[in-house]
Amino acid sequence: MHLLGLRLNELGNTLSGLGKPRSARVAYRAASIVAPQWSAPWFNLALCAKREGRFRECRNFGRRAADLDPNDPPTWWNLGIAATALGDWPTAREAWSRYGIAVPDGTGPIEMALGAVPIRLAPRTSGEVVWCRRLDPARAIIVNVPMPESGRGFGDLLLHDGEPRGTRILDGVETPVFDELELLAPSDLHTFTASVSAPRRADLQELETRADEARIPFEDWTSSIRFLCKCCSEGSPGQHEHHHEAQDEWKNLRSVAMAARTAECAQALLSDWSHAGTGRRADALVCALRRPPS
Fold it and tell me: What is the residue extent of each domain of the chain?
């Protein structure tokens, strides 16, 4: 191995660790020039491109790294992510297969039904973790109603990374959290929020049932949202000693969210519910996240 190439690659790693991605790219590029047959600089260039959302470059660098070292699983994984972002399904299928994943036969988008997975939305700005339905190793569809600050909504199709960044518990099993890399396709559902007064738990449960029957995704944010420090969010929340308010005592004032195509649909749901029981009230319906016309 070329000694100068090794030192330049190490310099790139150091610069990357210091939060200087542009300088790191220069070092990796220099390493790839003086040691063109060494896969590591090409892998690192692909990694930089992935983190910055430059997926065409990531695919090109990743392909070069894979050609030089076809036995490196992380290279195939990153190549699979880049190819998925670009809709290059032949390359994505090849990459996941070479990584060791049994990919179903076909030529188009991969449908694997990999179950539920927690995804951290817009990690640099939002950091909200929501549950998603995982389609393949790098794509998932949001099945929560996210807070509008994330810029994401129910049904959005996301590209996500493969490096675990914390865990959440699902049915007693610790499940890795992955960071969102890019919004691939927004849904056509707007996010609406409202304040409701539900005197009893049964009142809110009826609202949830009515929403389900109307096929309007619904969440009681008062009970479902939990604010965590960065350490807890990127680790295992149950391992940290923090005080979280007990949820045993019922609070009749609730903050709720819905995903609907029109404000009329959301308003009709709330109105029908509020008029069907004593003491129920629904106020301040707001379109908190409006999706662009399809």
Answer: 3-99, 115-185, 190-238+250-289
